[in-house]
Design goal:
The structure holds 2 protein chains of 2 kinds. Chain A is mostly beta strands. Chain A is built from no helices and 11 strands. By secondary structure, chain B is mostly beta strands. The chains are: A mainly beta, B mainly beta. Chains A and B meet through strand 4, strand 5, strand 9 and strand 10 of A and strand 6 and strand 11 of B.
């Protein structure tokens, strides 16, 4: 079992560029999440999904989009990167009130 | 809506000493409570969770936490820490009525536990 896999691990983007952060889980969990982690701020929920075809906004969705076409995959899209999106991004899936996190993607926007 | 307050951003402790990391929450409904640990450059890993029943919850790596409803607290403790416990610790809460955490967890800002030899 790989658990939750995120790619890439690191990325530098220029302002205005776009990219997709990939997330895949092999545990057949219905619930999936994207969080961002900023120093001293804990984790903030960006988007979540309760199953394939269903997504909803979290606390900080502006500037991001998601899709959930399969149970396994939950990509996060940044359309016009801004310096405020410099952060560490974590994908997670959950079942029975236990969340499993990926290793994170460290994104820098310059 | 709920919120989580971790009262200490950083806790230095000598090796083999006891430690307590404090967490308070606010919510208008019943909640589930969690502690997660994040080692450097890693994702978060579940230490323990309180769902119902006994208010003293035991987790991995010798950690335990006590749920106190009247004080809305869920403090994490370990009787004797080791260098390998150096990490960031996050307290989190989920609303009992949100479908078992379907809409995600609300996290505190984290406490950096520093173990000194």
């Amino acid at each position: 079992n790989a658990g939750v896999t995120q790619t890439p691990k690191f990325r530098i983007l220029k302002i205005g560029q776009s990219m997709t952060l990939q997330c895949a889980q092999d545990m057949n969990h219905n619930y999936m999440y994207w969080y961002r982690q900023d120093p001293g701020m804990g984790l903030k929920l960006i988007y979540y999904s309760v199953g394939a075809g269903i997504t909803d906004k979290g606390e900080v969705p502006n500037g991001y989009n998601v899709s959930r076409s399969t149970t396994e995959d939950f990509p996060l899209r940044l359309e016009l990167a801004a310096p405020s999106q410099t952060s560490v991004y974590f994908c997670a899936s959950s079942q029975a009130l236990e969340a499993f996190f990926g290793q994170g993607t460290r994104l820098t926007v310059v | 809506a709920q919120s989580v307050t971790q009262l200490d951003s950083q806790v230095p402790v000598f090796e083999e000493a006891p430690v307590e990391l404090r967490c308070n929450y606010s919510s208008s409904v019943s909640v589930y409570l969690f502690w997660y640990v994040q080692y450097p450059n890693q994702g978060l890993q579940l230490l323990l969770k309180y769902l119902s029943g006994s208010t003293l919850v035991k987790g991995i790596n010798g950690f335990e936490a006590e749920f106190n409803k009247s004080q809305t607290s869920f403090h994490l403790r370990k009787p004797s820490v080791h260098i390998s416990d150096t990490a960031e610790y996050f307290c989190a809460v989920s609303d009992f009525y949100s479908g078992g955490g379907a809409d995600g967890l609300t996290f505190g800002k984290g406490t950096h536990l520093i173990i000194q030899p």
